[in-house]
Specification:
By secondary structure, the protein is an alpha/beta fold. It has 8 helices and 5 strands, in the order E-H-E-H-H-E-H-E-H-H-E-H-H. The protein is globular, with a radius of gyration of 18 Å.
Length: 189
């Protein structure tokens, strides 16, 4: 039949890569939730903290917050990492603070689309979580500086907000469902 096209079966259609940034202040559970999303969906995981320069890590470890001049190269490197994975056809999930709109705008300059998931909660809950974790260079004393610069989503900025008082498993499940991500078991079908 001339002019009629049949859709490819779902199993043969190319799925466009998805890119999710799990954001929030230190101690909100970004890494735990992002790893959980990766485990459940197969998205390639990255921890934004691993992209910081040694100087930035030393600065934060000593209790001095980063300024924007220290953050711009880091954010551009993260955007480039997502864009490179997108070009390879690989979906990603990134644990990254992304506290300001301008930071998220830099991340959006990487791949064609980025979904942001903000893990939000009270300072008390987050401070308690920070006190329980071991081996992280970000001291609880910097939480107040992060809360001070946090810019929640603006009305024109799409994003999903989840309450950190939920269990990590509940956060991962809610994120996967509400972002419409395919689970590994669904991909195997």
């Amino acid at each position: 039949m001339t002019g009629e096209r049949r859709a490819a079966p779902p199993s043969t259609r190319r799925r466009l890569p998805r890119h999710v940034v799990v954001m929030g202040v230190s101690g909100a559970g970004k890494t735990t939730v992002a790893r959980g999303i990766s485990d459940l969906t197969g998205l390639t995981f990255a921890e934004a903290d691993e992209f910081h320069s040694e100087a930035s890590v030393a600065r934060m470890r000593s209790g001095v917050p980063l300024d924007d001049d220290a953050r711009w190269p880091w954010l551009r490197a993260l955007a480039a990492w997502m864009a490179d994975r997108d070009a390879e056809g690989v979906s990603t999930v990134l644990a990254c603070s992304a506290l300001k709109r301008s930071y998220r705008d830099v991340l959006r300059q990487g791949p064609p689309t980025v979904d942001f998931l903000h893990l939000d909660g009270t300072a008390e809950v987050i401070r308690e979580r920070m006190a329980q974790r071991a081996g992280h260079y970000m001291p609880a004393s910097l939480l107040d500086s992060q809360l001070a610069i946090l810019e929640r989503f603006e009305p024109d900025e799409p994003g999903l907000v989840l309450d950190v008082s939920l269990s990590p498993d509940a956060l991962v499940s809610a994120a996967v469902d509400r972002l419409g991500l395919l689970r590994r078991d669904a991909l195997a079908m």
